[in-house]
Write a structure and sequence with these properties.
The chain has about 850 residues and is of the alpha+beta class. Helix content is about 50%, strand content about 20%. α9 packs parallel to α12 and α9 packs antiparallel against α14.
Length: about 850
């Protein structure tokens, strides 16, 4: 019987070999410090950016997941048709929809109706210690059904945990509001908050305090009021529940219910409750159910008030993360293969003394593993520093959850994939050299790597697309902000009207509002003043269907109405194409409307002059067209012109638009504030400039541009790191050639031109490849805007020149060092 070695005797040579690989790997890292730094810095930055982007993507995809029953919660969405033409989709409904759904559809377990406090309200704690705590324009106020906290998951930290909203005149507040109105760590349960100037002026008892609402929810609020008081409002008491579509209805299905089963019952449901009205207007309504978790990722609905982001944008950021990571891996591959001849003699000697190819592959893979391991550790630290920058840009509370196993799975996946992707190709290339050839010093096999050039081109293409994309985004944003809006916006101060006029009846209220307007006109710095129910960029007062008198019901169009006083046209400088503005002393004119050019096209009114002879059916009323206004951008330039009507009021208390002269704005505002407090005591003074307010509509696009440019800069930095290292190594390899050329009389500029030319050729190739990709990407993104820039030649040429300049500056530093080397020393060493 032969003697069998114990297992540990077989392991000792393997352990020694592994230790030897590790020692050699560390020696190579320290021997070539520059290349080690470039590889580790590039990989660490790439992985860090990938982690940051994935954290942001995870945040956007996590909206409303905290609700325990979120898979069974849906929002009703109405699609309105005129004949076969889709007029729009909206989440708004009447208040009767929820109860009717619960009564008629057995698959529905519960419903919740929500209604915002339009325009906000003044909320105060009149009995607060140290004097009343009163705050102006609390806008995160929602009226909800008592079932809200049964359907949605919000932790109650104080008060009634079972039925906090069962009684009228009750309110649930967040922890933040409890501290704001009652003091930190105070117990507000049973105390009263007074609401003034809103849809339901009342004293409300605080019955519960909940944790602050997380950022990743489609339904933001600070106050939840019982909906009972709202429904006592006159317009709702006189309505049957289907006319005023100001509510959002959520339904909770029984577990295991297929939502398609419910949707199949909706045609009969719609016919039962709204069939007659739809027939009268020759319209059609399709009722569907939108999953709660899909709301955030599906923008484009009319009257959408919740924050949304297109799923395509999410995928786009994922693609950017992949590109940046790929650029970092390409750096490693390029530098490893570029150093092939330097390692070739090492490979040849090892093969000559009996090393197998698999052992050489293992050694090079281990070096890649070591570099990636160090890079991943540094990447986590860098990502922790980088994430607050992104969080500040998007104004979201972003943080890494190190207790989440998914985080470590991603880290492990990036580490393993990076080790294999960036290490496999160099390992197989370096281990494939022929022993005799490399020992003789032959460089023919190791000197030509077309893949390396292809990878450099890939880096340039990615960088060029990102630079051009950033250029296009900022040009479009600048275009929208600087485009003429069709009305005066500079020096336009908007002062919010009073919410609290205690003891003042309707007529006296109107007189008080007029008094303030007249006093404003007397101020030397005030050019003109007008009042209105809304201002540009701030929505409208009434959205309804409208058509030309005499047109069939199927020609109904959706339109918007804003109520303004008779000085509005003059104050805002809107151009009248035909007709005139209102005369406040002519009662018949005060009942007429002014329309924009888009209304002429939509309603088939012919020309501006002919439109003055027409009437419009507005809701249930017939109104005369008094004047036609040149199209103006009431909303952002992302939206096309649409039918927009201005209705007349002698005074409107919602907003004062004060056009100021350009001198001493701070002093003017101080005088207006003093006057405001004299006329409207007890009302907080709230103001803003119209241009700032209007441009807030581009906040999401501005955030997108900042994120895009941030990642573009990081991608370019990573690419430049690799290019710098590659240029350094290429110059080192060509020192003998450079020296011979210098001996033969070549100048430093000519040598630099010769060596940098090969990199510039790659930039040219990348520009040609990137051109169609960039054009397609920019054109697709610009399709989201009704008013957009033209795709001009400089959108491609300027980014290409910028990339060429960056690449040239990067390689020139290294080439210049080689071109200035002493030929005698180089040739002597050879």
């Amino acid at each position: 019987m032969g003697y069998i070695n114990p297992p540990e005797r077989h392991l000792k040579p393997c352990n020694r070999m592994f230790k030897n690989y590790v020692v050699i790997a560390f020696r190579n890292l320290f021997k070539r410090k520059l290349y080690s730094f470039i590889n580790i810095a590039g990989l660490a930055t790439g992985v860090a950016v990938c982690l940051v982007i994935l954290n942001y993507v995870n945040f956007e995809l996590s909206y409303d997941d905290f609700n325990e029953d979120s898979p069974n919660i849906y929002r009703t969405v109405a699609s309105y048709y005129s004949g076969d033409e889709l007029r729009g989709k909206s989440p708004l409904s009447g208040y009767a929809q929820g109860p009717a759904l619960l009564a008629d559809i057995p698959e529905i377990k519960a419903y919740v109706r929500t209604h915002p406090m339009y325009g906000g309200a003044v909320v105060s704690n009149e009995t607060a210690e140290g004097g009343p705590r009163r705050f102006r324009e609390e806008e995160s106020i929602q009226f909800v059904d008592s079932t809200f906290l049964d359907v949605f998951t919000h932790k109650i930290v104080l008060g009634d945990t079972k039925h906090p909203l069962d009684r009228p005149s009750t309110v649930v507040i967040t922890r933040k509001m409890a501290d704001k109105y009652f003091g930190a760590n105070a117990d507000p349960i049973g105390k009263t908050l007074k609401v003034s100037g809103g849809w339901a002026d009342e004293d409300y008892e605080v019955t519960a305090v909940i944790e602050d609402v997380p950022d990743n929810t489609s339904f933001q609020f600070d106050f939840l009021f019982n909906i009972h008081n709202l429904l006592q409002n006159g317009q709702y008491k006189e309505d049957k529940g289907w006319g005023w579509n100001n509510f959002i209805t959520y339904v909770q299905l029984h577990p295991g219910t297929n939502v398609k089963t419910v949707e199949e019952k909706m045609p009969a449901f719609v016919t039962k409750y709204q069939g007659e009205d739809l027939r009268d207007s020759n319209s059609r309504l399709v009722q569907s159910f939108q999953p709660l978790r899909d709301i955030h990722l599906n923008p484009g609905l009319k009257n959408e008030s919740s924050p949304t982001i297109a799923s395509s944008t999410i995928y786009f950021f994922i693609v950017i993360a992949i590109f940046i990571l790929a650029i970092a891996w390409v750096n490693y591959i390029n530098l490893s293969t570029a150093r092939a001849m330097e390692r070739a003699r090492e490979v040849g000697i090892k093969k000559a003394i009996g090393a197998f190819r698999i052992q050489l592959i293992s050694q090079f893979i281990l070096e890649s593993v070591l570099v990636n391991l160090i890079s991943v550790v540094l990447a986590v630290l860098l990502a922790v520093l980088l994430l607050p920058v992104l969080a500040n840009i998007v104004d979201k509370d972003l943080a890494f959850d190190f207790a989440d196993p998914r985080f470590w799975i991603v880290i492990g996946g990036l580490f393993l994939m990076g080790s294999l992707v960036s290490g496999a190709y160099p390992a197989f290339v370096l281990s494939s050299f022929q022993t005799a050839a490399v020992i003789k010093g032959s460089s023919e096999k190791a000197g030509k790597f077309s893949l390396r050039k292809a990878l450099v081109v890939f880096q340039f293409v990615s960088s060029l697309v990102l630079i051009a994309g950033t250029f296009a985004i900022y040009r479009q944003l600048t275009y929208m902000q600087n485009q003429q809006k069709g009305f005066t916006m500079d020096q336009m101060l908007i002062v919010k009207g009073p919410s609290v006029l205690e003891g003042v009846k309707d007529e006296a209220r109107a007189e008080r509002l007029k008094t303030f307007k007249n006093e404003l006109k007397r101020l030397p710095s005030v050019t003109s003043v007008t009042t209105s129910g809304a201002v540009p960029g701030g929505g409208y007062n009434w959205g309804t269907s409208m058509r030309r008198e005499g047109a069939p019901p199927e020609e109904n169009k959706s339109g918007s109405v804003v109520f303004v006083d008779t000085d509005f046209i003059e104050t805002y400088g809107i151009e009248l194409l035909a007709g005139k503005a209102w005369n406040p002393d002519a009662e018949t004119e005060m009942k007429a409307v002014l329309i924009n050019e888009a209304s002429i096209t939509a309603f088939g009114l012919g020309t501006a002059e002919k439109a003055l002879q027409e009437h419009i059916l507005l809701g249930g009323d017939t109104v005369e067209v008094l004047g036609v206004l040149k199209n103006y951008h009431w909303n952002s330039l992302k939206e096309d012109y649409s039918p927009f009507l201005l209705g007349a009021r002698k005074i409107h208390g919602a907003n004062y638009s004060v056009h100021l002269s350009a001198t001493n704005l701070n002093e003017s505002i101080a005088k207006i504030e003093q006057l405001y407090k004299e006329v409207f005591p007890g009302n907080p003074f709230d103001y803003y400039f119209l241009d700032d307010f209007f441009n807030r509509q581009y906040k999401d696009d501005q955030q997108f541009g900042k994120i895009f440019s941030l990642f573009a800069i990081l991608a370019i930095i990573i690419a430049c790191l690799g290019l710098w290292g590659l240029a350094s190594f290429t110059t080192t390899q060509k020192l003998r050639e450079i020296s011979i050329r210098k001996v033969l009389g070549a100048s430093t500029p000519s040598i630099m031109s010769l060596l940098s030319g090969q990199f510039m050729k790659l930039v040219l190739i990348a520009s040609i490849i990137a051109l169609p990709l960039t054009w397609y990407g920019i054109d697709s993104w610009l399709d989201n805007f009704a008013f957009r820039i033209d795709i001009a030649w400089d959108l491609f040429v300027v980014p290409a020149l910028i990339l060429a300049a960056i690449a040239l500056a990067t390689v020139s530093i290294q080439i210049l060092r080689g071109a200035r080397s002493n030929p005698a020393q180089v040739l002597r060493s050879e």
